Amino acid sequence: MNRLDLSENDLLILQNCLNNGTEPPVELAKKLFPSLYATFDFKTLKDSKIPAIEYAGKRPEAAILNEASAFGGGSPLQLERYFEGGKISKGMSQLKLFKESQEQPDSNWCNLIVQGDNLQFLKTCYLNQDPIIKDKVKGKVKLIYIDPPFATRSDFATKEGEDSYSDKIERAEFIESIRERLIYLRDILAEDGSIYVHLDQKMSHYVKIIMDEIFGKENFKNEIVWQKLTSAKPQSKTYPNIHDVIFFYSKGFNNSFIPQFVPKSE
């Protein structure tokens, strides 16, 4: 506690106020209760950083990016299949475009499906050294949509009963795993690119602040509410969970955005 700087006269005035049950003069009150009379510094508030989340295990951004190049970083890509391209003509099935080619692929491929650990692939993209994707992914991606686990503390399986993925990490470990991937995703986005992150009510408020840190609060475009159910079983003590949220951020100010329209009904 800071020591009060009171003069002899201040002490006499304070003693009289206590004896008479009156309030001290404003100038004396400012000395007694400085926090109540402090001038609010709007400039400092304006120049201060945005709120951040601090938690055990949160690493500096530089440490995360440097990890990509440690011990070789990333994972080498191996081409498994190459499909012929083309255009769909009238009456033609899209499946005919996905005919496996017998020729060697060239460097003009348009789409790439990667099977493997997403974090290792993001590190490979960040390093930009693998010959399959060199100078074709990093800083070139126009649109990213991710639907990460929701920290449900559950394991998921396919309809056939095969293991699909585990969603058992939560709290700080969950936030840091999402943050790590978002940092790499930001670096593979084009300057006019955008990212959409799909979450539910449990962790979205934490991830929103993390995304403000990584992409900048000024690049937050909107929160999209997706109604996943039109009705739900009534709950006895709360409202049913019928929607998810999708956070929409851009990498910079001049992001590409093409409005979608539907015909008006007559």
CATH topology of the largest domain: Rossmann fold
Mean pLDDT score, rounded? Answer: 81
Count of individual helical segments: 7
Named at the architecture level, the CATH assignment of the largest domain is: 3-Layer(aba) Sandwich
Main sheet summary: 4 strands, mixed
Structural class: alpha+beta
The residue fraction in helices comes out at 25-40%
What is the CATH class of the largest domain? Alpha Beta
Radius of gyration over all CA atoms, rounded: 28 Å
- The tally of structural domains comes to 3
Describe the structure.
The chain has 266 residues and is an alpha+beta fold. The chain has 3 domains: 26 residues, no CATH class; 79 residues, no CATH class; 128 residues, 3-Layer(aba) Sandwich (Rossmann fold), CATH 3.40.50.150. The protein has a 4-stranded mixed sheet with strand order 1-4-6-5. The longest helix is centred in the last third of the chain and has 18 residues.
List strands and helices in order, with pairings.
Layout: H1 8-20, H2 26-32, H3 42-47, H4 61-69, H5 118-127, E1 141-146, E2 154-157, E3 163-167, H6 171-188, E4 189-199, H7 204-215, E5 220-227, E6 243-250
Parallel strand pairs: 1-4
Antiparallel strand pairs: 2-3, 4-6, 5-6
Condensed summary:
By secondary structure, the chain is of the alpha+beta class. It contains seven helices and six strands; from the N terminus they run αααααβββαβαββ.
Brief descriptors of the model:
single chain, 266 residues, alpha+beta, Rossmann fold, 3 domains, 4-stranded mixed beta sheet, 6 strands, 16% strand
